[in-house]
Design brief:
76% helix; mainly alpha; 20 helices; 441 residues
């Protein structure tokens, strides 16, 4: 059909560039939706959806301790509740990422919001005195395996931004996280006090249903430079499975991927242990009231919004990702040494900016480096692996952190953080990551 070629060429020139590839045949509905909304609007909507889900998540975090206490659960049972949620998210992250790569952004975001709706429906039911509350509360953790709106949003941002713009674009998701921390905690406490403990769960349920509708109607089926079914197996071969662990783990064996991933896990793990134990430390070590601890967490949220939304974007335009990664490890060392010596909450407040900078820079830079090291068709799976790092900390943190705190006290967290990051800094100094990334490209 020679006459159709010029028309197809003109159409492709009007479409937004997606990873530098032309729009393939068979992606008509996805591309027409991209034409309608435009790439900037899809990115903006993705930020809004991420902020919506994070707000709901922190709303339920704010009522869980009170609900578990009302249901007669002790601290051990509440720990089991948190551990189950962490394990489910840990196991579900890579599988969800692979699902996003195979089925596209629209299906991934919709699935996450539907799973969130199921979680908040069960949570609202657990608040009813006429129903078995404890059973329903534990059952409400099960949909958490598929609640990964933030990794899905990261995949959309990664697919729709140029590699040079990626750190700044991913960093802006920190604004969404900060909004979720502040607005979710505020709404959860206010609605709980004014309208009852069931009200935050119902509001979160309605918000997640709205998020599912927006995902289905406004998000393109695929944001990659290939159609949703591009990963289909050739004729005669079995179709790739979402649960194919070999396909998931092979990404870690690509050149330059495993070292960056290990740095992401190991460097932030000591501070992650400290944050998991922070509620206990704030009561026992700092002697803070609940309201004072809440103000301190709000301080965390504001700093994270500033660092990820503004600071990282500016730094990424002047410094390489490797330099920023070294800077985050170096600041981790300094903060760890100071944590080992701190004795008052004022000392800790002075350390919070450095701690937030290191955590935010580490996560944003490593996410950007890892997504650049894999093909565009595997960015969702890689981001799913990255999303499993925090659930891993939440899973191991209560037991390991509690053991360290009971045996050695608060200074041990700073000492471990300094020692681990000092070793990593030596490794980064002697073996630059740029050489390994060049091999990956």
């Amino acid at each position: 059909m020679p006459q159709a070629a010029p028309k197809l060429t003109r159409r492709r020139q009007c479409l937004p560039r997606m990873q530098g590839a032309a729009a393939p045949k068979g992606q008509g509905r996805s591309l027409s939706k991209m034409d309608t909304l435009g790439r900037p609007w899809v990115i903006l909507l993705t930020y809004v959806l991420a902020a919506l889900e994070l707000t709901c998540l922190f709303m339920q975090f704010s009522i869980l301790p009170y609900l578990s206490r009302r249901l007669g659960m002790d601290s051990v049972a509440f720990g089991y509740l948190q551990t189950i949620f962490g394990v489910l998210q840990l196991l579900g992250g890579p599988v969800f990422g692979r699902f996003a790569d195979q089925r596209g952004a629209r299906a991934a975001l919709s699935l996450s919001f539907v799973a969130g709706s199921a979680l908040y429906l069960l949570l609202a039911a657990a608040c009813s005195p006429a129903l078995p509350g404890a059973f329903l509360l534990f059952a409400s953790r099960l949909p958490g395996a598929l609640m990964h709106t933030l990794p899905a949003a990261q995949m959309v941002i990664t697919d729709l931004t140029a590699p040079a713009e990626r750190p700044a674009a991913l960093g802006r998701l920190g604004l969404c996280f900060g909004v979720g921390v502040i607005l979710g905690s505020l709404l959860g406490g206010t609605l709980n006090t004014e309208c009852g403990i069931h009200c935050p769960a119902i509001v979160a349920l309605v918000a997640n249903l709205l998020g599912a509708i927006l995902s289905v109607t406004c998000i393109p089926a695929s944001t990659k430079g290939a159609p949703v079914d591009a990963q289909a197996a050739p004729p005669g071969e079995p179709k790739a499975s979402v649960f194919d662990l070999q396909a998931i783990t092979r990404l870690l064996l690509l050149p330059g991927v495993l070292p960056v991933f290990l740095i992401k896990v190991v460097s932030g793990f000591p501070s992650g242990l400290f944050m998991v134990m922070f509620s206990i430390i704030s009561m026992d070590f700092f002697q803070l009231e609940p309201s004072q601890a809440g103000y301190l967490m709000s301080f965390f949220g504001v700093l994270q919004m500033v660092v990820q939304g503004l600071v990282i974007g500016q730094l990424s335009s002047h410094f390489s990702e490797e330099a920023l990664l070294r800077a985050s490890v170096l600041v981790f060392m300094v903060v760890g040494l100071a944590m080992a010596l701190m004795s008052t909450v004022l000392h800790f407040c002075l350390l919070v900016p450095g701690l937030v900078f290191s955590l935010c820079t580490l996560h944003v830079v490593t996410d950007s480096m890892l997504t650049k090291a894999v093909s565009a068709s595997d960015t969702g799976t890689m981001l799913g692996l990255c999303a499993s790092v925090q659930p891993l900390t939440r899973t191991l943190g209560p037991t390991l952190g509690g053991l360290l705190y009971r045996s050695f006290g608060v200074p041990v967290f700073g000492q471990v953080q300094f020692a681990v990051n000092f070793f990593l800094f030596l490794v980064l100094w002697r073996k630059p990551m740029s050489q390994k990334r060049d091999k990956a490209w």
